[in-house]
Specification:
Chain lengths: ~475, ~200
C-alpha cells in the first residue's frame, strides 16, 4: 500500500555530486546560463539532486561561471552525505524499519519534515511501538498530501489500543483517498464493532431436520423435524482494552416452533484476563453457565479456559484447553462429571482474500457412569473467504472419533461413534453495525449402535447487530 | 524495459534532424536509460529552453520517475492532453495515477488502444485493473471534497492545468454517486465555494 509512496520518494543513486567538476573537452559556454537557470529553478523548488546536476553541467561548460559554482558549493556544504530521507526510504523498502528510523530522524533534525515523519511513524507502527508512532503520524496528518495515509495508520494505532470510536473516525478520514477507501471502510466497520465494550445480538430462525436425533430418519415424517428460532446476546467489557482483564455476560434461547420439550435456554457469566494482542498472546478465563432444557433445569457448569497463540512464518499457532465441571439435574445426573478438551490450531492466509485453518482436537468426558465416559479426537478445517469488502463466506468441517469407556449391557455393545460435522455460512454487512447471515449446518453421525446413527441438517437465516465503544 | 523503449523512441524521433536542443534531448535520453533521472531532467529542461517542442513530454516522463507526478502532468499539458507517442501517453497516465487522478489515468490508458506495444499494453491493463479496484465502490463525499479542495489549492497557485484536472476528477467522481454530490458542471466561479453549496443539498 505504501509502495507507491516509497517509489515516489525514491531517487536513482548517482555518483558523488559534490566531487570536483572537470570541464568538458568541447564545452559550450552558451549553455551554462541555461543549466544554471534549471539549477536555480530546481533548487528553489527544493529538489536538490537535479539542482546539483544542473550546476555541475553549467560548470562543465563554463568553469568560470561563479554563480553556478557558488550555488553548487552552497548545496554541497549543507548536507555532506547522501539525503538521509532517501537512505531511510531505501532501508524501509528493504524491510528494515528499525534501520530506517535513524535516517528519518536525521531528515527531521533540520526542521519539520512531514514526509519523514509519516514514514518514521509507519516504521514505529510496524515495530509495534505505537507511542512513538502516534505523534509522528499526527505531525504528518497536518499536511494535505499525507492526511489520508497518516489517518489510516493512526486508525490502526487506535484500533490496537482499543479506542474503536477514534479508530472509526480516522478510517473515515482515510477513506477519502480512493486507494485507501476499501481498506479503510473495512477497518472502520471493524472499529465500529470493537472497543472496550462490545454488545452483540443475533436473531435467527430456521428449520431443524432432526430435532430428536432420531436414528435413520432424515427428512421423512419419522424424524422429528421442526422450525426453530433463537436469540443470543453477548456483552463483553474489556476494562483496559484488548490486553487486560475482561468480563463477559451472555444469554441465549433456542426454541422449537412445536417440539417445546427440546427448547434450550442458557446464561453465562465469565471473567478472564488476556495478555498480548493478535500476533502473540494468551488468556485465561472462568465461565459460570446455566442451562434449561424443555423449561426444566438442566445443567450448571464451571468452565476454565486457557489459550495461547503466536505468529511464526505467517501462521498463527493457537493452543487451547478447556475443562468444565458439569452438574446435570434430575434425570440427566449420570452425565455429570468433568469434561475437558484441548486443541492445536494453525491459521494462515491463502492469498489476499482467503483465510484457512487446520486443527486437531482431543477431548475426554469423565462422568458418573463409565459407560457414559468417552474420549474423542479428530481433525478440523476452516476456510474464510472475503468475497467483497461487505460479503464473507465461511466453511467449517470436522471429523470426530469418539470411543466410549466401557461395555454397555443395555446396548449390548461398547459404543463407538464418528461424527462428520459441516457448516457453511455467508454474512453480509448491511451497515457498520448490522449484518445479515445465512447458514447451513449439518451432522452425519455414525455409530456401531444403530440407535445413535443419525443425520441432521439445520438451515437458518439471521440478523446480527454488533456495536463497540 | 519501458525506459529503454523511451530512449529508442526518442532516438528515432531525433534521427530526422539535429539541433542544439536535439543534442540535449539525446543526452537526456541516454541518462534516462541509465536511470539517472535527475540529470536527465536537467537535459530535457535545457532542451525545452532551447525551444524543443518534444522536450516537455520527455521531461514529464522523467518527472514521473522522480516521483513528481503533479509537475509531470504540467509538463505533459495535463492528463487529458492530445495523444502523441504511446509510451509518453502511458507515462502521462502514470503521472495521473500517481497524482490520484484515477479517472483521468483511466481515460489516458483507454486512449492508448492498439498504439502501444505488448509490454506497455500489459502494464496498462494491470494499472487499469488497479484503478477499477480503487473505484469499484461509490466514492465517499469526503473524496469528492478532497479533489475539489486540491482544485481550489492549485487554482490559488495559478497552476491551471492541475486545477482543471482535479476539478474534473471531482465532478466525475460526484457523478458516480447515487446522490450526484458535487457532480454539477463547473462554472468559472470559485470552486472552493462548491462544498458548501453541495453540502446544502438533501
Amino acid at each position: 500500500m505504501i509502495a507507491p509512496l516509497l517509489a515516489a520518494l525514491t531517487l536513482a543513486a548517482s555518483s558523488d555530486p559534490c566531487a570536483a567538476v572537470a570541464p568538458l573537452p568541447h564545452p559550450d559556454p552558451a549553455s551554462a546560463p541555461l543549466y544554471r537557470e534549471v539549477g536555480d529553478s530546481e533548487r528553489a523548488a527544493g529538489h536538490r539532486e537535479p539542482a546539483l546536476a544542473a550546476y555541475r553541467d553549467a560548470l562543465r561548460n563554463d568553469p568560470s561561471d561563479a554563480k553556478s559554482r557558488a550555488a553548487l558549493e552552497g548545496l554541497c556544504r549543507a548536507p555532506a552525505h547522501a539525503d538521509p530521507f532517501q537512505e531511510g526510504v531505501q532501508r524501509m523498502q528493504a524491510g528494515q524499519p528499525r534501520e530506517a528510523i535513524p535516517f528519518f530522524e536525521r531528515a527531521r533534525a533540520g526542521g519539520p519534515d512531514p514526509s519523514a515523519a509519516l514514514l518514521e511513524g509507519i516504521c514505529w507502527y510496524n515495530l509495534g511501538d505505537d507511542e512513538a508512532a502516534e505523534p509522528l503520524l499526527r505531525e504528518a496528518e497536518a499536511r494535505p498530501e499525507h492526511r489520508e495515509m497518516a489517518s489510516y495508520y493512526r486508525g490502526l494505532v487506535a484500533l490496537r489500543a482499543g479506542s474503536s470510536s477514534e479508530a472509526a473516525r480516522l478510517f473515515d478520514v482515510a477513506s477519502a483517498d480512493p486507494t485507501l477507501e476499501h481498506l479503510s471502510s473495512d477497518l472502520a466497520r471493524v472499529a465500529h464493532r470493537d472497543g472496550k465494550l462490545v454488545l452483540s445480538i443475533l436473531a435467527e430462525s430456521g428449520w431443524d431436520s432432526n430435532v430428536s436425533l432420531a436414528p435413520g430418519g432424515t427428512f421423512g415424517p419419522t424424524s422429528a423435524s421442526d422450525g426453530t428460532y433463537g436469540v443470543s446476546a453477548t456483552a463483553l467489557y474489556r476494562i483496559l482494552g484488548p490486553s487486560g482483564p475482561y468480563l463477559r455476560a451472555s444469554g441465549f434461547l433456542h426454541d422449537q416452533f412445536q417440539l417445546g420439550a427440546y427448547d434450550l435456554k442458557g446464561v453465562d457469566g465469565a471473567v478472564g484476563w488476556q495478555v498480548g494482542r493478535g500476533d502473540r498472546g494468551a488468556l485465561a478465563e472462568y465461565d459460570l453457565g446455566y442451562r434449561t432444557f424443555g423449561m426444566n433445569p438442566f445443567l450448571t457448569s464451571h468452565q476454565l479456559l486457557g489459550s495461547g497463540w503466536f505468529t511464526a512464518g505467517g501462521v498463527v499457532w493457537t493452543a487451547s484447553w478447556l475443562g468444565r465441571f458439569e452438574s446435570y439435574d434430575s434425570g440427566f445426573s449420570p452425565f455429570s462429571g468433568f469434561f475437558q478438551h484441548g486443541e492445536l490450531r494453525a491459521t494462515f492466509p491463502l492469498g489476499a482474500r482467503v483465510l484457512a485453518g487446520l486443527a486437531y482436537g482431543l477431548g475426554h468426558d469423565s462422568t458418573q457412569q463409565s459407560v457414559l465416559d468417552f474420549t474423542e479426537h479428530g481433525p478440523g478445517a476452516l476456510l474464510r473467504f472475503g468475497l467483497t469488502p461487505r460479503l464473507r463466506l465461511g466453511v467449517d468441517a470436522a471429523f470426530t472419533f469418539r470411543q466410549y469407556g466401557a461395555y454397555d449391557p443395555t446396548l449390548s455393545a461398547q459404543r463407538s461413534d464418528q461424527y462428520l460435522d459441516g457448516a457453511a455460512f455467508t454474512e453480509y454487512d448491511l451497515s457498520n453495525h448490522l449484518m445479515a447471515r445465512v447458514a447451513l449446518t449439518g451432522r452425519e453421525a455414525f455409530s456401531n449402535v444403530d440407535a445413535f446413527a443419525y443425520t441432521k441438517i439445520v438451515p437458518t437465516v439471521g440478523l446480527a447487530w454488533i456495536g463497540g465503544w | 524495459m519501458i525506459t529503454a523503449a523511451l530512449s529508442l523512441a526518442l532516438s528515432v524521433s531525433l534521427s530526422a534532424g539535429g539541433s542544439g536542443a536535439g543534442e540535449h534531448l539525446l543526452a537526456g535520453a541516454g541518462l534516462f536509460r541509465e536511470a539517472r533521472y535527475a540529470e536527465a531532467l536537467v537535459e530535457f529542461r535545457v532542451a525545452q529552453k532551447l525551444g524543443s517542442p518534444e522536450a516537455s513530454g520527455y521531461a514529464g516522463a522523467t518527472l514521473v520517475q522522480l516521483g513528481r507526478p503533479e509537475e509531470a502532468l504540467e509538463a505533459f499539458g495535463g492528463p487529458d492532453a492530445p495523444a502523441r507517442d504511446a509510451l509518453l501517453d502511458y507515462y502521462r497516465a502514470l503521472a495521473a495515477f500517481d497524482a490520484r487522478l484515477y479517472l483521468a489515468a483511466d481515460r489516458a490508458l483507454t486512449s492508448l488502444d492498439s498504439r502501444a506495444g505488448p509490454r506497455v499494453t500489459s502494464q496498462a491493463a494491470r494499472l487499469r485493473q488497479e484503478i477499477a479496484t480503487a473505484l469499484s465502490g461509490e466514492p465517499p463525499r469526503t473524496a469528492v471534497d478532497w479533489y475539489l479542495a486540491r482544485c481550489a489549492e492549485y487554482r490559488g497557485q495559478h497552476r491551471e492545468v492541475l486545477a482543471r484536472a482535479f476539478c474534473r476528477e471531482s465532478t466525475e467522481l460526484g457523478a458516480r454517486r447515487s446522490d450526484r454530490y458535487g457532480a454539477q458542471p463547473h462554472s468559472s466561479s470559485d470552486p472552493a465555494a462548491r462544498p458548501a453549496l453541495a453540502g446544502s443539498r438533501p
